[in-house]
Design brief:
This protein is of the alpha/beta class. The chain is 29% helix and 14% strand. It is built from 2 helices and 3 strands; from the N terminus they run αβαββ. The chain has helices at residues 17-27, 36-44; strands at residues 31-34, 54-57, 66-67. The protein has a 3-stranded parallel β-sheet with strand order 1-2-3. Helix 2 (36-44) links the parallel strand 1 and strand 2.
């Protein structure tokens, strides 16, 4: 992780949508790796993921998310 210049930023599943948006923005996230439930929750909450260039879902590709296994 660190050799690639990556930093892991855990997101608490109990956070509000506003807290999650703030955390993603403050971290300057360029990639998100989530499971299907969290991908759906982010989309339903209207979280703007425009600044995040790479979105990967562990449970398969879905609208705007890449498949982790691909």
């Amino acid at each position: 992780l660190y050799k690639a210049g990556l930093v892991r930023v855990p997101i608490n599943a109990r956070q509000t949508s506003a807290e999650t948006v703030e955390l993603i923005g403050d971290a300057g996230a360029r990639a998100l790796l989530v499971d299907a439930a969290h991908a759906d929750a982010m989309e339903q909450a209207g979280i703007d993921l425009g600044a995040v260039g790479v979105r990967i879902c562990f449970d398969g590709a879905r609208g705007g998310w890449l498949d982790y296994e691909a």
